[in-house]
Amino acid sequence: MSTDNPAQPTAVVVPAAAREHVADLGAFVAASPSSYHAAEEVARRAEAAGFTRLAEDTAWAVALGGRHVVVRDGSVIAFTLPDAAGPTTAFTIVGAHTDSTGFKLKPKPTTHGAGGWWQAGVEVYGGPLLNSWLDRELELAGRIVTHDGTEHLVRTGPMLRIPQLAIHLDRGVNDNGLTLDKQRHTQPVWGLGDAESADVLAALAADAGVDPAAIGGYDVVLADTQPARAFGAGQALFASARLDNLLSTHAGLTALLRAGGAGSIQVFAGFDHEEIGSASRSGAAGPFLEEVLTRISSALGATVDERARAFAASLHVSSDVGHAVHPNYTERHDPANRPVAGGGPILKINANQRYATDAHGAAAWSVACATAGVPTQEFVSNNVMPCGSTIGPISATRLGIRTVDVGVPILSMHSARELTAVVDPWYLARAMESVFAR
Ligand code: ZN
Predict the structure, then answer these.
(1) Which of 10, 20, 50, 157 could bridge across to 234 with cysteines, CB 3.0–4.6 Å?
(2) Tell me: the pLDDT tens digits for 340-358?
(3) What pLDDT is attached to residue 2?
(4) How far, in Å, from the CA of 389 to the mean position of ligand 1?
């Protein structure tokens, strides 16, 4: 029960365990301003729990009962082998994505605007709600690679801002709607003064402790720096950057770390590049998961036939955020299937296989939720509002493993700061733990 504002009625009572879960989610988001940081944070937490890290370019010593984690760029896979695993042992996979929509630093990133402003050149990454990025303190975060091939994770802390035009200079904005040109109106400011001394890359190099001249390449995004927080009646709401999809990444990892022994090989996979279609060497359309599963199978002595039998008995639960019914736009949702915030995770269904859920997957999910004592609800689009897609159909197409798409209903998807009910990420993690126990 909240004491922050005792005059307000408590709309819902949030269990202490759910509060602890989202507090940890907030810490995970803060540690993960880029997909590279998110993959590293997953690996760091797994290693702290006793997992050992595997390098892709070395031979793997994978033994029964082993727990391991492997990072490829902004993607990460962690897995637990049961003591009794064999060549036909099935995989239970929970998948999510590590990237979020926003902006990425361009080449020649230091630019100079009128009025002495230092600016940075950025590209749009995926499909962000552009307006939500205005007037926020942003940081640069990602990786730089020096000429010797060494990769450095970097983050600057609050450094930039995309300033909105004053209403006095845009009198019709509240009547005509805000229209942002993706090039002209999205370039952040980050300083004032002598143009010669401005250097975005020098700020990144300073964070890495390297000479700016040593930078050979970089993958760097903008990230919102405002910490996540619970708020509202009963402190039942939770606002944070990058809930899409660090919410699922955190839930999947938490479930894997908590899962006890089971008959199947337990796998958590977090993929980069979902927001731009997943087609990359580390994305869900690439070979990363297939290669890791195959290397595990090989370590267990599986033949091609035995690996196919293991895949045929496997299950992939792909989790990503979905849409709670928005109270101001109820007509945008299906009239009968109306996910509510706080009502538990959603099972995502789409006739055109934008979600991979089928009858068998739906049944497996419903059993997992019932076993965990977690409520669940269904999401399907209004027919005139086509839904997005997820890693589910992409990895199902690649691997042939039965896949079910699930998630958590949120508001403001692809905003720089999204909104969930406090209980739903906790429900999702518990349901995933139950999936791992199958
Ligand atoms: Zn997503």
Answers:
(1) 10
(2) 999 999 999 999 999 999 9
(3) 47
(4) 8
CB 39 within 8 A of CB 283: no
Query: Looking at domain 16-100+241-436, which of 3.40.50.1000, 3.10.290.10, 3.40.630.10, 1.10.3720.10 is its CATH number?
Result: 3.40.630.10
Report the pLDDT value the prediction gives residue 171, as an integer from 0 to 100. 94
- pLDDT one-digit tens code per residue, 231-261: 999 999 999 999 999 999 999 999 999 998 7
**CA-CA distance, 351 to 386, in Å (whole number)?**
11
CA 356 to ligand 1 center in whole angstroms: 15
244 C-alpha to center of ligand 1: Å? 5
Tell me, what's the pLDDT at 9? 58
Cα 321 to middle of ligand 1, angstroms:
6
Residue ranges of the chain that CATH labels 2.30.250.10: 103-224
The CA dihedral of 298, 303, 306, 307, to the nearest 10 degrees, is: 50
- C-alpha 219 to ligand 1 mean position (Å): 20
Question: In terms of C-beta density within 10 A (0-12 exposed, 13-18 middle, 19 or more buried), how is residue 328 classed?
Answer: exposed
User: What distance in angstroms lies between residue 333's CA and the mean position of ligand 1's atoms?
Assistant: 18
CATH code 3.40.630.10 region(s) in the chain: 16-100+241-436
Mean pLDDT of 288-294: 98
**Does residue 370 sit in helix, strand or coil?**
helix
Expressed in angstroms and rounded, the spacing between residue 274 Cα and the centre of ligand 1 is 7
Ligand 1 centroid distance, CA of 390 (Å) = 7
Q: State the distance from the centre of ligand 1 to the C-alpha of 148, rounded, in angstroms.
A: 34
